Amino acid sequence: MLERRTKIVATLGPATDADGMLDRLVSAGLDCARLNCSHGSHDDLRRRAAAVRAAADRAGRPLGLLFDLQGPKLRLSGDVEEQMVAVGDRVTFSASGTPGAIKVEFDKFAALVTERSQIVIGDGVPRFAVERLDGEDVVARAVSPGPLSARKGINVTYARPELPAITEKDVADLALACELGGDFIALSFVRSAADMEQLRELVTGHGSRARLIAKVEKIEAYEALDEIIDASDGLMVARGDYGVEAGVARVPLMQKDTIRRATQAGKFVITATQMLESMIQAPEPTRAEATDVANAVIDGTSAVMMSAETSVGAYPFESVTAMATIALAAEESPVIHGRARPIKGEDTSRAVMRAAVDLADELDATALIIPTASGGGARICAKYRKRRPIIALAHEETIAEQLTLEWGVYPTIMDTAESVDDMIESALTTARDFAGLPSGSRVVITSGRRTGTPGATNLVMVREIP
What are phi and psi of 337, to 5 degrees? Predict the structure, then answer.
């Protein structure tokens, strides 16, 4: 059981609705299920969320449940007639329907655009540099060729904050996610830490403790990355829209840097978009895709994610199996990059957890066992990217589910004990039974003076499994 450290996220959809398919994905290595709020009705989201909880019960282990909010999305009007644009062509974009202009379905489009902006259509072409504003119209010159057609998506780089970070649709979807007990909520098109702070305020208002994920897919987000990391519980490297905005050549270094900086801060990070794209229609990935997944794993990503591969693809089970196999093989790399370095001036709890990680490594312990009320201790240990398995014994089911995206962490449930001695004995037997640890094997276990209290860890000991 204690083999693969990198976690697997799969998007649910029509392809995973077949009887028994979700159980097969779990057996293949699924750790967290993603529900994309951009697709399907609220009834679909309810049904799939319930299916995830039922599959977790059957598997006897926690599964994470991630709701991915759509965020603000610009589109061309449905009245736009298809046309090809050549480099150098001047095109006028208008929200008001100026004759001869390309109509945009956003009434403040001109206010959105700045002198630094580029207007990018569809998956990256055509691309326009803004030349000037003409009242409510935007005049732009094509810098790359491509087609314009009805309902195409638009990205505007370096935009003014005229678009709402959280739309009316997002508010409704967020309420449902909180009602259904979502473990993670991801926000699309994040531009600043303020966007995540707004999301946290709404989530808290619903009485939810969901972990919040910032999707890094805009140039502005990458430029404000440190502030966004501070305001978030985790990040998603959403390579699709970032590639559209910045150009595909800019994606690899952004991905590597985001993984490194998130890990240093002790935040989990998911690498997503087109990881096994060919498996939408093919039973095996390409060599390039396998290398892409492996590089993300070696860079230290906490999790890798599939979208259309599992939601609408012909081979969802094979996709999860391939992802798990590639990740496990890549973890044989002699170095996993991006691991956090010790920080001077740590508080007692963090220093104790780091000492536990080092001790488990020095003693070649079978595992590091962490009873936890909040999950914080396990998260601290995960950021060092050591190969020693971290068995997190959560006192709440929700905490266990929220640890499913942490690198190298294997969460399960354990009741709170009356005394520290009882807690330690219970932890040893629970970890043994959950992870199949052999009797007599040496482990490192952490504790505090009070059981079930977040942040009270001040004790590290070496014990043998009974």
Answer: -80, 165
Last residue of a domain, one of 279, 303, 330: 330
- The 8-class DSSP code of residue 261 comes to H
Give me the residues paired with residue 66 across strands.
Answer: 34, 184
Q: Give me the mean pLDDT over the 281-309 stretch.
A: 98
- Rounded to the nearest 10°, the torsion over CA 145, 151, 157, 159 is 140
The whole-angstrom separation of Cα 316 and Cα 15 is 7
Domain assignment present for residue 191? The answer is: yes
Distance CA 137, CA 132 (A): 9
Instruction: Tell me the residue range of the domain where 140 lies.
Output: 74-156
Biggest distance spanned by C-alpha atoms of the chain? 81
Cα–Cα distance measured from residue 168 to residue 434, given in angstroms and rounded to the nearest whole number? 43
Domain of 279, CATH number, reads 3.20.20.60
Give the span between the Cα atoms of 301 and 306, in whole angstroms: 14
Residue with the two structure tokens 């009070």: 450
- Give the list of residues 6+ apart from residue 344 with CB closer than 8 angstroms, or none: none
Residue 277 in contact with residue 318, Cβ under 8 Å?
no
Query: Residue 126, preceding bond cis, omega within 30 degrees?
Result: yes
Residues 67, 78: one domain?
A: no
Query: According to the model, what pLDDT value does residue 420 have?
Result: 86
CB atoms under 10 Å from CB of 422, counted, come to: 12
Choice between 448 and 366, residue whose per-residue pLDDT is larger: 366
Pair 268, 262: CB distance under 8 Å: yes
Task: Give residue 1's pLDDT.
Answer: 67
Span 416-425, pLDDT tens digits: 888 888 999 9
Measured at the CA of 170, the angle between CA 185 and CA 403, to 5 degrees, comes to 5
In one letter, which amino acid is 294? A
At residue 305, φ and ψ (nearest 5 deg) are -130, 145
How does residue 455 score in pLDDT terms, banded at 50, 70 and 90?
Answer: low
